[in-house]
Every structure is written in C-alpha cells, then in structure tokens.
C-alpha cells in the first residue's frame, strides 16, 4: 500500500462529499430509501467477501458515494487486488476500483538497500508510529470478476428477538409498553423506551421502533462515547440536532440491515438539504459524522457479532 498525501486525501474527500450531497438533494442516498431486507435482499451492508468484515464509518460512505443514480444501494460485496490474487480470481480489464481510506499506526513501504556486493535492492520496512498514517486501499466489487469463483465467507443469519433482548440487557434500557400510545419515544433521564404494546402481526415494526431509539440512546454519555455525542440534547432546528439525527439515522439503517428489520427514513427533505450544504462546504464534516456513527452502530453493548 502506498501512502496518500494530504492533497490527494482532500481531493478524494471533496469528490465523495459532492456525490453524497447530490444524492441527498435528489433523495437517492441509501439511508433515504425505505426497505425491508427480507423482501429487498439487495439492501445489505457492504462487506469484504474474503474476511466477512463489514465496511463502516467513512469507508461505508466512500462505497455508497459510488452507487449509480438508478441503483437503490449499489454493490455490497468487495475484495482487494491482493485477495483476488490469493483466490486466483480474474479481474476484468476495464474494472475500476474504489479507493477507500486506510489508517494504520505504522510507517511502512520499501527502501533502497545496498548488499555486501554493492548491489541495490528494495527492502520492505514496517515501523510503529504514534499517529495513524493514511494509505491507499482499493476495493473491487464482485461484478468486476470474470469466470467462476467461490466466496470463502458465507452469509449468516441473526435471531432478531434474541439480538434485541441482548441489546436492551447490555444497555440497561427499560421497555415501557403503553396501551394506545400513538408515537414511541425514548426518555433519556429514565433510560426508558415508551412504546405501544407489541402486535403479534407487527413484530418487525415493533422491533424497528425499538432499534431506532436504541441508536439514539447510544449517543448518551458513557455509551458509544466517553462524553455525550454532539447534538444529543439539542433542540430541533439546531444544526447540531441535524448532525445527531443523521448519525442516528445511519446507525438505525445499519442495524436494520444486520437484523433483517424494516427501515423507514426519518430525515426530512429540508434536513437532507441542510446536510448536503454542510458537507459540500466542509467535506471533513462527512468524515466526522460517518466515523461518529460507527461506534454508535457497533458499540460493544449493541454488537451482535464483533467479527462482522
């Protein structure tokens, strides 16, 4: 992997921000689509088919930014050039890889050395660093392969009811079922989710509502972060409130996909336009919000399977 300069990083981030902003204004972003993973099977989190690990945070944004306007979500199965080589997969000649940011606390590469005979050679080095260094990592989608291939990592299924119960147990969130309640809500001070009693014919809808409130609750101090997430206590209309709602929306979408639950977008058209302007003006805002979303969606208390 080659190191990425600040100039190239900023150019790429601007490109991703402009694409995502355009999707937001047109209502084409992945999290603006209503779906049910059981029926709409294309709605799955992008992942590496060699390792099974799912892309999250800003890496997920980099992938979603490259979907076509006629696609609801775009490709979700990816691999690197090195992984294709190890599996003897053949990549199409016209295939275009997606560059994603890869930060590691190592300085590595090749340096020139001279052996005892005076001959110059290249030697690989890898040294630990205090701060992360950005490297190039390009991923291809399965549509970029030709010929036959076998995926080494199988899809897995989750027991939704058990997963929800585990989340509630680990976060100490209490469910309060209220007969006739029209709209569910999360009471932060009491750490309670108030919701109408579950209708046996609408279990998925019930679990989906709980999931959204759990994603919101993850921003509370001491949960996904040491301190309270920006905008957690903000009032509607504040820009920080919109940022927090976006982070919660991304987390809800991801958890819905992982659990196979229906997802209904909650960001308004005006809020989406606010976000578009925010990330166009300063692309690093998208990086920050996307990376803040990652621990919300994958905080240990909510993690269904840490290897995925």
Q: What would you note in describing this structure?
A:
- This protein has 308 residues and is α/β, with parallel strands linked by helices.
- It has one domain.
- The chain has helices spanning 6-26, 57-64, 81-87, 160-171, 203-217, 239-259, 269-281, 284-298, and strands at 47-48, 77-80, 90-91, 98-114, 120-141, 145-146, 174-177, 185-187, 192-195.
- The strands form three sheets. It has a four-stranded mixed β-sheet with strand order 1-2-5-4. It has a three-stranded mixed β-sheet with strand order 7-9-8, with helices on one face. A two-stranded antiparallel sheet has the order 3-6.
- Helix 4 (160-171) runs parallel beside helix 5 (203-217) and helix 6 (239-259) crosses helix 8.
- The longest helix is centred in the N-terminal third of the chain and has 21 residues, at 6-26.
Question: How would you characterize the largest beta sheet?
Answer: 4 strands, mixed
Helix content: 25-40%
Give the helix tally: 8
Could you tell me how far the N terminus lies from the C terminus, measured between alpha carbons in angstroms? Answer: 23 Å
Order of helices and strands: HEHEHEEEEHEEEHHHH
Structural class of the secondary structure composition? alpha/beta
In terms of DSSP E residues, the strand content is: 15-25%
Number of strands: 9
Radius of gyration: 22 Å
Number of domains: 1
Report the principal-axis shape: globular
Q: What would the average pLDDT be, to the nearest integer?
A: 87
Low-pLDDT stretches:
300-308
Q: How are the strands of the largest sheet arranged?
A: 1-2-5-4
